[in-house]
Amino acid sequence: MSILILGGGGMVGQKLARSLADHGLTGHEKSPVTLFDISFPETGAPGKQIRGSVTDPLALRRLAAARPEVIFHLASIVSGEAESDFELGWLTNMHSFWTLLEALRTEHLASGGRYRPRFVFTSSIAVFGGPYPDRIGDEFLSAPLTSYGAQKACNELMLTDFSRKGFVDGISIRLPTICVRPGKANKAASSFFSGIIREPLNGVEAILPVPDTVRHWHASPRAAVGFLRHAATMDLGQLHDRRALSMPGVSCTVAEQIEALRAIAGNNVVALIRSEPDETVQRIIEGWPRDFDTVRARKLGFAAESDFAEIIRIYLDDDLHRR
Amino acid sequence: MSILILGGGGMVGQKLARSLADHGLTGHEKSPVTLFDISFPETGAPGKQIRGSVTDPLALRRLAAARPEVIFHLASIVSGEAESDFELGWLTNMHSFWTLLEALRTEHLASGGRYRPRFVFTSSIAVFGGPYPDRIGDEFLSAPLTSYGAQKACNELMLTDFSRKGFVDGISIRLPTICVRPGKANKAASSFFSGIIREPLNGVEAILPVPDTVRHWHASPRAAVGFLRHAATMDLGQLHDRRALSMPGVSCTVAEQIEALRAIAGNNVVALIRSEPDETVQRIIEGWPRDFDTVRARKLGFAAESDFAEIIRIYLDDDLHRR
């Protein structure tokens, strides 16, 4: 079973590739994996690396022409960049997605309808915009407040329609904020959610830019890989024509994150978190979802952690203690 | 105030143009109106006619370069055609919409930000797909079951994002099924909703392809013109960033439609309706919304008829007795 990972050079893409190399996709066979991205880490996960951009239509057509049986689409420019560069955001995140779907439809038609790849798209909770109910249910509208969210929501609609027509067999999974991210802090407004756990555990001071009453929605990188694997192998007929769904996660406040860290690592580690309010970050975070009721996803077999302590322990196991 | 109507040759576009010629847009000035469409009726409404297709990027850029202050976008290929010709549907209904928005953004930027047109887009209740609640509220998700619905839903997302960024000042209004349509029956599955009223009132037999228990959501062409005029003149700041909304209408069963016709025109007219079940039409109609709770739109001043009898009387006044 040939597998293509778009965005295969990123954090989740690399963890997915490693998981596929270790366990295959269905558990009993090794699958040839192709990773497509603009860059890769130096000691990357196993797989055939192809360097390129999703904004290159010819590259996308070449990838489609190889007729991969499973496609994981994780590639996008991040929320902040899509917001500051309107044109680049829509081009990279939406129009390129259309180009890929069209290339796959061309292969479907050329194969006489036999080629119909499984297509797993990582959407985002950014498709939602406030005002929210206390918990966002499976029938709540997509009313994004960022270009990134609007692009993801358009892609969900396209993928559902291409799937309804039988050109591909697609599913859009809306990931929670992935926490604890290994490696360095990045410029995303959400970066501190990982930073306040990761930095202290590495003996480094971390900045907390928001009040500890802020509530947010998390899942571990390991849970994300689990979502992707399940989405690639489950029977999508169960979705009927609602092929976009919010993934399970852990809803907790920053104070609860910190208490979980204290229970696992002690007061001296927690003491490395320094509060330094940042109004810009606070304003962005205020617009974000806080909690979900993911009945559909759980019924369909998707599972995340049950509390934030588990999320921290996964970071210790999979990243910190593995180095 | 210069006005552009895309799809100005269609039934609603023509009624809108006539209303603008009679009353202006704001009630105290006559506005130059440009109508863009692939064809126009022989004795058309007043306005400068430009023949062309929305699939012609150069034509769209020319229209944008004239910097109309108000744009009504009514142009699309219909639901049935978008379903049978996948490629043409997405090209005409979605990609062309993007091309127009980009052309307007170019004018916005070239004007140093001064040009920011009001943009009224006629979306559709086809953005919704079952299973439905008894009444569809303002926070129910868009999960379309047709390509046409998916294209309209994408356009709503794009228009909201272009508006949030300040390039245009847009609103998407989801029209109910427009009834009673004057003129001849067309191939739309919804055609009979008008046909069973219009044909008998003109002394002609009409076919009813569904059981009279079928419930649906209607508004008159006069109400549609009212929605468009209100959408073009109201303060859109009230919408915050939820710029797509379902319009008010009348929810009634086919039996209630027929009883309203009987009360207005008598038994002999009703006797011209002949039941002839059509399973294909029945299956399509079963997937359609039946009722809405349009709290937001009503609060914002949009109004439709209060019962189906009123819809019939509007057909008599505006179309049948005017000929």
How do the helices and strands line up, and which of them pair or pack?
2 copies of one chain form a homodimer.
Chain A: E1 3-6, H1 11-23, E2 33-37, E3 48-51, H2 57-65, E4 70-73, H3 79-84, H4 86-110, E5 118-124, H5 147-164, E6 169-175, E7 177-178, H6 191-201, E8 206-208, E9 215-219, H7 221-233, E10 244-246, E11 250-253, H8 254-265, H9 267-270, E12 273-275, H10 279-286, H11 295-299, H12 308-318
Parallel strand pairs in A: 1-2, 1-4, 2-3, 4-5, 5-6, 6-10, 7-9, 8-12
Antiparallel strand pairs in A: 9-11
Helix pairs in contact in A: 1-7, 2-4, 4-5, 6-8, 8-12
Describe this structure in words.
- Chain A is α/β, with parallel strands linked by helices and 323 residues long.
- Chain A has 2 domains: 3-175 and 220-246, NAD(P)-binding Rossmann-like Domain (Rossmann fold); 191-217 and 249-290 and 306-322, UDP-galactose 4-epimerase, domain 1 (Alpha-Beta Complex), CATH 3.90.25.10.
- The first copy, chain A, is 42% helix and 16% strand.
- The first copy, chain A, contains 12 helices and 12 strands.
- The longest helix of chain A is centred in the first third of the chain and has 25 residues, at 86-110.
- The mean pLDDT of chain A is 95.
- Chains A and B meet through helix 5 of A and helix 5 of B.
Brief characterization of the structure:
With 323 residues, chain A is an alpha/beta fold.
